[in-house]
Amino acid sequence: MGTHDNERKQVDRTSESATHLFTEKLQHNVFGKVTVAMSHFAREWNVPYRHVKFRLAAIDQFRGFAILLMVLANYLAGITCVPAWLKHAPDIGFTVVDSIAPLFIFAIGLTYGLSVRRRVARAGWGKTVAHVTRRYLAFVGIGALLSAGESLVGVSDSPVNWGVLQAIGVAGLLTLWVVRLPIVIRAGIGLVLLAGYQVLLDHGWLAVVMAAPHGGLLGSLSWTAMLILATVVADVFHTYPQQRWRYLGTIFLLLALGSMVSLWVPISKNRVSASYVLVSLGMSGLLFAGFAYLTEYDNLGLPLLVAWGQNPLLLYCAHYILLGLFVLPGIYFPAWYAAASPGTVLVQILLLAGGLSGIAWLLYREGWIGSL
């Protein structure tokens, strides 16, 4: 027993020494916010710095990939020649584009719990609540401004233009109150909330939810359930770096549960149905597992995606400005946007993605990371 305890203490001291050494080296790195986050991450989760570095790189790449897809999907939405499978399903059904918003929700969940716990330890619960509340109210406010702009220029004809940022904002506000609960209890709350939403959807809410993109304010309850469950999956991933079967088991459990629920509840992004939440969350987890594996074990380096992932909100807002260069003239000249040829679409995609990538890379090289 004594020998085992000594060996364990030696491993802990070795890990701690490596973490401190890594932290000292990082102080000379220009990416201040990222490096500080790494050192806090290592201390909080008590894991060797190697796992910390690669996990954060994987999260940035995954988040960057999600925001890039969101930008491209928004561009393609208004073009006639784009096939249906590259647009949102009108109601029941599931397309490639329907999986994109859950990717970003999952990316938020990967760091949500860590960020809250770290801030509570540093500043206390009261200041943490104030900070998180301001942050996610800002999401709602920015989303409202973008939605108002869409309605003003006629891009959206929905009577209630509830954007993805509003859905994320409400989900972030509500998730705060359960994120520090144990994993099992939090998972139960997420599933009960999802089930309750589905029951209400089937008994009176459907028309209201379908009247607004992303389900409107009522649909935000389902997005909240998704974010809560995403924090559960994230904690499993962070807590057991040497036992990835736990993470993969959780992901496959979500997929199995979602597939079973889909026998009674149709998969629908517009309804934010329970089956949609579970299946899309499981798919997001599988995709992130791929990023994590390639980053940690194959040393995959995708700095451009990291650059996108470090300033996602700024790039998402900026894409509306660049998108306006195509959409607004297209109102008067349909061949420029809505009725554009495949060749024109390809050129515009390259201009849009290239311009935003240039902004992302410049911010990355300068070490600038925006935060709310």
Compact overview of the structure:
With 372 residues, this protein is mainly alpha-helical.
Describe, in plain words, how this protein is organized in 3D:
The structure is a single chain. The chain is mainly alpha-helical and 372 residues long. It has one domain. Helix content is 75%, strand content 0%. The chain has 13 helices and no strands. Helix 1 runs antiparallel to helix 2, helix 4 crosses helix 8 and helix 12 runs antiparallel to helix 13. The longest helix is centred in the middle third of the chain and has 29 residues. The radius of gyration is 21 Å and the shape is globular. The N terminus is likely disordered.
Brief descriptors of the model:
372 residues; 13 helices; disordered N terminus; mainly alpha; globular
